[in-house]
Amino acid sequence: MRIAITGATGFVGAHLTTRLESEAHELVLIARRSRNDDARFRINDLSNAEQLRELFTGCQAIAHCAGINRELGEQTYERVHVEGTRNVVEAAKAAGVEKIVLMSFLRARPNCGSPYHESKWQAEEILRDSGLDYTILKAGVVYGRGDHMLDHLSHALHTFPVFGLVGFKEKSIRPLAIEDLVHVMRAALIDRRLKRQTVAVLGPEEIYLSEAVRRVAEVVGKQPLMLPLPVVCHISMASFFEWTMKIPLTSLAQVRILSEGVVEPGTPVVPLPYDLVPTRRFTTDQIRSGLPEPGPFCVGDLRLCS
């Protein structure tokens, strides 16, 4: 089966690529920049609908995984999430693509005051109104090799003796293993399940952020002092990290996400079929398999070193 993947060099896109490669599907990999010399990669920032149409020609399905969690230069939420999705949908129609699977966010919703959440919601609405077959996956906190959660948390634990919790009243998360998410994506793409449905995809275990940090710290051999900090402090730190780091330790969008909790969808969804419900718990083995090489943040993580 010929499948196009946008955001193919990103965390979710890369794991989906690996899974579909193992099944010998023909892939068209689309990203803003290529990480290697793989001939399947095509450079497109989703602003060129005509080129997208050419890339989508002959594809039976599209996994739309492209997204950002902070704005930088021309890469704005409006341009990537909204205009990019509109271009993907228009190109898919022109190319005769049968199915689009959209990677969205659990708490995406309108009129909530967060540009990230609202732009993700607009992308969902564009797809729902497209007339195409679609599946919208509203995922929460996803972890695994190459993610932002375990990667940054591990480096933070190797760098700082103190970990600041978001707000004075702890919120819960339901960590989702990337393998479970990819399993659902494959079912929608290949088996054509979840037709015209919006579903939430969450891990099986609800825990506080402090418990997630404790489990990761135990695996990496650290014992950080965990202190609750006002949300406004995290907003200030996130602004600084966005300005100084290539990949921010935390972004403004992530502060909003953690301050709300990540256990309930922001809008109504359809329940997942029992055989697609995620089962992997946030265990020591799962954490260890997703950790990067140990070490603190360094000068190379700063934007000035780009």
Supply the CATH class of the domain at 2-143 and 176-202 and 264-279: Alpha Beta
> Percent helix among the residues?
25-40%
How are strands sequenced across the largest beta sheet?
A: 3-2-1-4-5-6-11
| CATH topology category name of the domain at 2-143 and 176-202 and 264-279 | Rossmann fold
User: How far apart are the termini?
Assistant: 38 Å
Q: Strand-and-helix sequence, N→C? A: EHEEHEHEHEEHEEEHEEHEHHH
Enumerate how many helices there are, as a single number. Answer: 10
CATH superfamily of the domain at 2-143 and 176-202 and 264-279: NAD(P)-binding Rossmann-like Domain
Largest sheet: 7 strands, parallel
By DSSP, the count of extended strands is: 13
Radius of gyration based on Cα positions: 19 Å
**What structural class do you assign from the helix and strand content?**
alpha/beta
Low-pLDDT stretches are none
Q: Mean pLDDT, rounded to whole units?
A: 95
